[in-house]
Design brief:
Its main location: membrane. One of its GO terms (biological process) is aerobic electron transport chain. It is found in: Cell membrane. This is Cytochrome ubiquinol oxidase subunit I. The protein contains 15 helices and eight strands. It is mainly α and 489 residues long. The protein has a domain of 251 residues. It has a two-stranded antiparallel sheet with strand order 1-2. Strands 3-6 form a two-stranded antiparallel ribbon. A two-stranded antiparallel ribbon has the order 4-5.
Length: 489
């Protein structure tokens, strides 16, 4: 405990509020990221199914999801812009010294963001205005631009974890920058694919969860069955892939950032035959209390052998490693992520076995109840993955090259606390507005479907292409109204 107190007392006063502000905005923004990265792909898959099978319900779902995609993107612009400013305002030491090395990633992300905005606008405009095939083809670049944006951000973050592509002059400043080496660092591949697949399975479970709730409430028509099946199937396929990628990135951390790995696994002393702790708490003297201790497992997981040597936190000075509290936080976040991932894998297995045997989704309420929870659980897993990765890297903002305390702004701590309060209030308003808009859209769609049912036609019979089916007079309040192209949500 004395070591942690000493380190905290030596830190600048503005470090804590700067960290809290950055953590809050990142944690808020990351809620939107899965839909931003993966919803375009899920929507295009549904769109393709609609065109191939001439299924108007699939086209209707794709159109509605594209509207959600646009609203989510608009809010993501706000939260992403705040983060961009915070990098410069809160961490001038990082951007001033190292911006020329890793800043290319942010540039790529900015261009991808711009292209995605244009493509989303074209895709939304194209419903009822373009030929079906032309409209679909114009939407195909959307997933690629979303992946390009992720490429830029993950390139910057992986560089912070394993900085490469530069030399240091006599004053310790980076020179001779090699852009390609700075982008494609040892951690880039494992981080990027782990992130992309995580976004796909998270978005899939989130979207499917909406229709799972509908199933539990008795809505079991073709619209809800299809709305559940497509995103859930994509997520179920991605889940076992994510387990392989998760193992790969853990081994990469073991090789490239051994102290970070020690923090995530709360390993204190460098040794072989190291046990694995499921949860548990690390203390300043290196002891671990609580949790479940499994002998030899940590060494085996790290190198497929109980004789694998695992570097411990005590192998480096106290000011070059996370504190015991930080290591415990990272360890719990990592374990929660793995626990949720294991649950999702079992859910995907349940779905797959029933599908292979009966060619249909499970009919159990327990399954759909679990599926409804899977969306929230997967978002929690994403948050925990970010916490584990960033907290376990402390005290480095650029691993083994710059400490967080050396990068922080000189702005007074009081000002930063006020900024945090303002940002919290603004974000509550922004996310409240997002929720209100989504609920309003849901209400309009239900009224439209009710109006279609009252006029003796199923909602899926009104395709998003071509003229709408006629709606009897007086049905405007039920989603009827004018039949101009593009007037239905």
């Amino acid at each position: 405990m004395h070591t942690s107190v000493q380190l905290l007392s030596d830190a600048p006063a503005q470090l804590l509020p700067a960290r809290e502000l950055m953590a809050f905005t990142l944690a808020s923004h990351i809620i939107l990221v899965p839909l931003g990265v993966a919803l375009p792909l899920i929507t295009l898959v549904m769109h393709g199914i609609g065109l191939r099978r001439k299924d108007a319900t699939a086209l209707l779902l794709a159109r509605r999801w594209s509207a959600v995609m646009a609203v989510q993107f608009a809010v993501g612009v706000v939260t992403g812009t705040v983060l961009s400013f915070e990098f410069g305002l809160l961490w001038p030491g990082l951007m001033g010294r190292w911006g020329d090395v890793f800043g290319i990633g942010f540039g790529v992300e900015a261009w991808a963001f711009f292209l995605e905005a244009v493509l989303i606008a074209i895709y939304l405009y194209g419903w009822r205005r373009l030929k079906p095939r032309t409209h679909f083809l114009l939407g195909l670049p959307l997933p690629a631009t979303a992946l390009l944006g992720a490429f830029g951000i993950l390139a910057a973050n992986s560089w912070m974890n394993t900085p490469r592509g530069f030399s240091l002059d006599a004053d310790g400043n980076p020179v001779d920058v090699d852009v390609w080496k700075a982008i494609f660092t040892p951690m880039f591949g494992p981080q990027y694919w782990h992130f992309v697949v995580a976004m796909l399975l998270t978005a899939g479970y989130v979207v499917a969860g909406v229709y799972a709730v509908g199933w539990l409430r008795g809505r079991r028509d073709h619209y809800h069955r299809l709305g559940f099946a497509v995103p859930f199937t994509l997520a179920a396929i991605a889940t076992p892939v994510q387990f392989v990628l998760g193992d790969s990135i853990a081994r990469s951390v073991f090789q490239e950032q051994p102290v970070k790995f020690a923090a995530m696994e709360i390993v204190w002393k460098t040794d072989t035959r190291v046990p694995e702790y499921i949860f548990g708490r690390l203390h300043e003297d290196g002891t671990v209390t609580g949790g479940i201790r499994i002998p030899l497992l940590d060494s085996f997981l790290a190198g497929f052998s109980a004789d694998t040597e695992v570097v411990g936190l005590s192998s480096v000075p106290a000011d070059e490693r996370p504190t015991a509290v930080q290591a415990t936080i990272a360890h719990w976040a990592f374990d929660i992520m793995v626990f949720i991932g294991s649950g999702l894998a079992l859910l995907a297995l349940w779905y797959g076995l029933v599908w292979l045997r009966h060619r249909r989704a499970p009919a159990s309420k327990w399954f759909y109840g679990s599926a409804a929870c899977a969306g929230v659980a997967s978002v929690v897993a994403v948050e925990c993955g970010w916490i584990a990765s960033e907290v376990a890297r402390q005290p480095w903002i650029v691993y083994q090259n710059m400490r967080v305390a050396d990068a922080v702004t000189a702005t007074r701590s009081t000002t930063l606390w006020i900024m945090l309060g303002v940002v919290v209030v603004v974000y509550v308003f922004v996310f409240g507005s997002l929720l209100a808009v989504l609920l309003k859209m849901r209400t309009r769609w239900r009224l439209a479907d009710a109006g279609a049912a009252a006029s003796a036609r199923a909602p899926e019979e009104d395709t998003p292409y071509g003229p709408r089916a006629p709606v009897p007079a007086g049905d405007a309040s039920a989603g009827g109204g004018p039949t101009r192209p593009g007037d239905r949500p």
